[in-house]
Amino acid sequence: MVFCILFSLFSLFTIAISSSVFVSAFSLVNDFHVLVSLKQGFLSPEPALTSWNSSNPSSVCSWAGVFCSQDRVVSLDLTDLNLGGSVSAQVSRLDMLTYLSLARNSFRGGIEIANLSSLQSLNISYNQFTGGLDWNYSSLSNLRVFDANDNNFTALLPLGVLTLKKLKYLNLDGNYFYGKIPESYGKLVG
Asked: Domains in the chain, ordered, with CATH?
């Protein structure tokens, strides 16, 4: 009887460990596929992203600009790498990101960041992004820093940023926002 109980406990423990290792490895493979997909949308990714070897998923945590914790991508810093092209909405599938910087490149087109509840810092400044910033900010609930200055955004100022309770730094200057500045922006306190 004791043997059966011990064997059952051992089996459950083994299954639990195996599934957590599998889930972790599976999640890192998902992050790998997202990054490969992002790179395909970039112009001039070489030589800056030569370390992004699309044939070896296990190398993702050693790629330039990629930082991992507990086998997940938690930071993506592509600052000042002379990249162009577009940034796919796939970036929002990097669901454990806490830091994302695409600053000082030549990215064009629209960009939307969503469903990144761990994201604390987002820097998309000094690019050529267009459109607006009317995103689902409730899915970015931990955002503390949001820098989107010096792009080509042409829309009303986004009201959604006002729902970001943890926001400490907001920079939207150097764009082409129009309309009256909402009074509620005066309530943003860093």
From this structure: 2-187 (3.80.10.10)
